[in-house]
Amino acid sequence: MLYKTQELSSAYGEDLMQNGQCHEAGLMFSRAGKCERALTAFEDCLQWRHAVMMAAQLNFTDAQLNQLARRLASESVSTVRQLLSLSLLGIYPVYAE
After folding, report:
1. Which residues does 60 contact at the CB level (< 8 Å), separation at least 6?
2. What total number of domains does the chain contain?
3. What pTM, to 2 d.p., does this model score?
4. Is 12 inside a domain boundary?
5. For residue 35, how far is the Cα from the chain centroid?
6. Is 22 within a domain?
7. How far lies 12's CA from each of 7, 34, 66, in Å?
8. Tens digit of pLDDT for each residue in 2-59?
C-alpha cells in the first residue's frame, strides 16, 4: 500500500511539474521519498527553504550546500531584476516610434 501511495505521489508530482506547479510538485516528490526530484522542483520555483531541507535529507556536504546556495541566490537576483524591469516598464512604458 505504501509503495502505491509513493508511486501515485511521484506520478502526480511529474504532472504538476509539466503544468508549471513546481512547489506543489516538490511536495509530492518529497511525500514519495524522491528527495533529489523534490530538490530540483524546489530549485525551479526558488523555494530555498524547502530546497535546503531536501539537501539536508540528501546529506549534502558543505561544498554542495554552498553550490546550492549560489545557484539559488543567482537565480533569485535574476528574477528580482526581471521583476524590477517589468515594474519600470509599467511605470515608464516604451513607446514605439
Report:
1. 68
2. 1
3. 0.78
4. yes
5. 12
6. yes
7. 9, 12, 30
8. 678 899 999 999 999 999 999 999 999 999 999 999 999 999 999 999 999 999 999 9
Angle 46-48-53 from CA coordinates, rounded to 5°:
135
Query: Is residue 78 within 8 Å of 55, Cβ to Cβ?
Result: no
92: buried, middle or exposed (CB in 10 Å: 19+, 13-18, 0-12)? exposed
CA distance 38 to 54: 7
Residue 96 domain-assigned?
no
On whether residue 28 sits in a domain, the answer given is yes
Q: Are 13 and 34 in contact (CB under 8 A)?
A: yes
| Nearest residue to 50 (alpha-carbon basis) of 59, 58, 42 | 42
Distance CA 80, CA 7 (A): 36
User: Residue 91's Cα: distance from chain center in Å?
Assistant: 30
Interatomic CA distance for residues 90 and 65, integer angstroms: 37
